[in-house]
Amino acid sequence: MPVRPTAVLPTLLALSLAAATTLTACGTGSGSDPDTVKVSFKQSTDNSIKVMDTYLADIKKQFEKANPGKKVEFVPIKAPDSEYYTKLQQMLRSPKTAPDLVYEDTFLINSDITSGYLKPLDPYLAKWQDWDQFIDTAKEAAKGEDGKTYGIPDGTDTRGLWFSKDIFKKAGLPADWQPRTWNDVLDAARTIKREAPDVIPLNIYTGKPVGEAATMQTFEMLLYGTNDGTSDPLYDRSAKKWIAGSQGFKDALSFVETVYKEKLGPDVSDALDPNVMTRVRGEWLPQGELAIALDGSWLPQDWLPGSGHEWPEWSDELGLAAMPTQNGQAPGKVSMSGGWTWSIPAKAANPDLAFEFVKTMQTKANAQKWYVANSGIAVREDVAADPAYVDAQPGIKFFTDLVANTHYRPAYPAYPKVSTAVQEAMEGVTTGDMSVEDAAKGYDEELKAAADGQVIEK
Amino acid sequence: MTRARSLSRSLTRALPVAPAVVLLLLFLAGPIAYCAYIAFTDLQLTGQAEDSFVGFDNFRTAFGDEAFLNAVWLTLVFTVVSALLGQNTLGLALAALMQRASKPVRTLVGGIVITAWVLPEVVAGFLLYVFFRREGTLNAILDWLRLPTQNWLFTLPILAVSFANVWRGTAFSMLVYSAALNEIPKEITEAAEVDGAGGWRRMWHITLPMIRRSIGTNLMLITLQTLSVFGLIWVMTRGGPGGKSQTLPLFMYEEAFQKSMIGYGTAVALLLLVVGSLFSAVYLRLLRTEV
Does the reported pTM lie above 0.90? Predict the structure, then answer.
């Protein structure tokens, strides 16, 4: 009688399926050497981009020269953003795998603080003079709910409107365009639709496929321009509760709805294509197919020599304008900021040495070198005032000036879920499947679940 | 033979496989047991100081979650369309046709089909993304034929990714069936032919019953493979638009890693395992029926 291998098959297969689809964090323990500082950072998934590697190699050289007998070992993580966080968080869970210094996105830093993954840096900062040079808003970005600081920001980013001077000329719009209200932006887009029908008038990211870019580059750029500019429209910091049912939320959704309903944006199917961000930077803007883009300060990074789509002429061909507030109310412009910080894990073996490494990275000269290399925006006042920095790249002054009116997200533990709920609401009005009312109501419900009931109606 | 001797003898016999068993326990059973445990906790990847045992909460949440039910439905559609109907029948058809084809044709067709199979999932995903997108190859062909074009990834995402999975996975079924068909003794088909049975009758009454076991094994393997497809869909649609191609693995990924709810994500993984076992049970049942 033939054997029936099929009888054991399902069990075996089911087992391997389970193993493949679940997460097994297994780390390779490496003994900690008191003279070696281990530094983890996010390595670009694009092999031709070595900005961070080059910069860190230089700092390592400086550090090892200044501290004889000490060594720096890099533990790079080569992954896209979301996978980077996951990998890092798994490493931070155990003393065996926790490095001495990690690169943390301000988007998730508060989650990691709440998890107890990071070490408060206040004792170090108190003795470090350069800390006074850091601007206050940036210091806020890495503060936990306990008021302690858990990270040193290494730059930030701001956001604004990029527009094609050429298309504006064709549409009879001014080359020094500076919209004062949301309606000014929409009107310009309407004019372009009428006068230059073969281009996309305005791109705003929307929906889940682009993830956090939809929430931050579009939705929050709108939302934070809706109230009086002093209180946070997403999270009530004094009550420590998330805000539901606000008019500002509905107004921001209406803006998104208008753009896609009036066909002022890209075709909905393109807008919801997961690769739309690459197309904006690599195709639409450089090829003159898009008139206005609401996007971040880092775009020129993609147009540098050696990037694959070099576009040195961008600074002549594109104009820059600040995103206005809803009705032009003070302060008149809006920007959102994020960025990354250097943090020391709670389970780090050599925290003191790690902080020494941060100090080397954050001398004025090194910080400035870094901002310029990665198209970052300075968070140090001395660098921001240095003409060598301001002149290093076109656009840098414009985006650095926006720092005065910028907002940091309430990046508390519930934020990633809140952000997904925002994207779902945006997607609903973008496709036209949902009215603004319904989408906002859907958000309020999701919010209650995401924030565990810590919600107030406004 | 005394009992003690027989015991020592079976122990000696078991010795060579012991390392394998230990490894299996360590690397398969261990993680699965741990996974089963965290499915009953509210463990998060980040944003939480301590996790706690929550009983069946995660499962209750899942069944009350529209997005989860949507993902279950889409997973079934995806599996039935792409594995059972697509890969399976196409693989059998190709294998049967290739039995009669000349050698050059066989080499050529086999080569093409197998190329699709050996391509890494992500590469295949990109290729098909380019095929289906609005400026893609499919629309170029339709346009040339003067047929209406549309963005397939937007209008029919679940069918687009199902097609992609058929494209990618058919080779496997084809290989399984080619092997099975080669096993059928020539005399039997020839006898049937002499008796006057046409092609379809021979297929239905002789070939299919004779390769019944291969059909069952193949169905089971491709079903389990298809249930866990992630990269292909992720690259093509990210599960969108609006969750219209979000199968269970993508739903699980979003819950576990993007919203960092590991406990909930793992509970969904266990439910996916249940779906897989249900399919397997059905196939085993089919295999047991005598012709």
Answer: no
